[in-house]
């Protein structure tokens, strides 16, 4: 069978993979703190023993994540926070490990635990943050949580904890399938006092919807070309078989 059939097959397969990555980016265009994934395509030589490759197959990879900052929008809600510039909010992942997010849509559960919109506990100086019953909760620019107890005046303010804010170098980070960012080899980033918080704001996704849609349309056209190539190769094989039968 013509080797071009396998070349077209790998191209179509990896076009589908790239479509899935861009579709995920587009689906999260309105997700707070979401970071889009890059997609890179390259040719992969096929070697048989010594010498030069006999042909090349297509390969699509997700080599990195775009960690550029998204736009901020004002909500006026005390428990909504956004980070000004680089940095991450430390949370406890479902497996108990430390992970990082830019989603600052925070809530206090019925048990007084500070969690993200997806229910992940927010980490403080000594573990998950617990907030006592309070009439008002404020988050300072350095991540400090200040509460006013029920039935008390504005003079009765108390600091409860401080949100753990980190800022590791971007090359040391990777985004998992759960959307959370982690350090390689399970390392834990140290707290960074220079990270600043904007209370009453949320950071949007850094996905450009028009760009993502354009990429998806281009990949769809490439997929059609690969399928057409496989169809043409199949037709050529049938024609060659007929010629051999005649001879």
Give your account of this protein's structure.
The protein has 247 residues and is an alpha+beta fold. It folds into two domains: 3-66 and 207-246, no CATH class; 72-203, no CATH class. It is 26% helix and 29% strand. The protein is built from two helices and 18 strands. It has helices at 3-27, 209-246, and strands at residues 40-46, 55-61, 72-74, 81-84, 88-92, 98-101, 107-108, 114-115, 123-124, 127-128, 134-139, 144-149, 157-162, 165-166, 173-175, 181-183, 196-199, 201-203. Strands 6-5-14 form a three-stranded antiparallel β-sheet, with no helix packed on it. Strands 11-12-13 form a three-stranded antiparallel β-sheet, with no helix packed on it. α1 (3-27) packs antiparallel against α2 (209-246). It starts with a helix and ends with a helix. The model has no long low-confidence stretch (mean pLDDT 88).
